[in-house]
Amino acid sequence: MSWNARSVLYVPAHRPRMRAKLDSIPADFFIVDLEDGVAPEEKDAARTHLRDAVERAQLPVGRWALRVNQAESAPFETD
Q1: What is the DSSP letter of 56?
Q2: What is the pLDDT along the chain (79 residues), one digit of tens a residue?
């Protein structure tokens, strides 16, 4: 596998409207963020939105990764 991404866009997982637009955004790769892009009080909603997007195959196939909280943090286990 080679890495030729010229542009990478971080997308906060708690923003379903932004996630819905990924197919129309000309970035090469997307990082769906559960870490510092999501406020602590929004993390549960972010996980719910992300789970729904994965189940409905709403993320660009082969063009996204998930950024979780640090292994030492409280939210990591839930992420």
Answers
A1: T
A2: 456 778 898 999 988 787 778 878 888 899 999 998 899 999 999 999 999 888 888 888 888 899 999 999 888 989 8
pTM for the full predicted model: 0.82
Q: Could you say which DSSP state residue 39 is in?
A: -
User: 3-state DSSP call for residue 42?
Assistant: helix
Residues 34 and 13: their CA atoms lie apart, in Å, by: 6
Give the E-state strand segments of the chain in sequence order. Answer: 8-12, 29-33, 64-67
The sign one gets for the Cα dihedral 47, 42, 11, 2 is negative
Q: Residue 28: which residues within 8 A CB-CB, separation 6 or more?
A: 4, 5, 6, 7, 8, 63
Tokens encoding 12: 């906060």
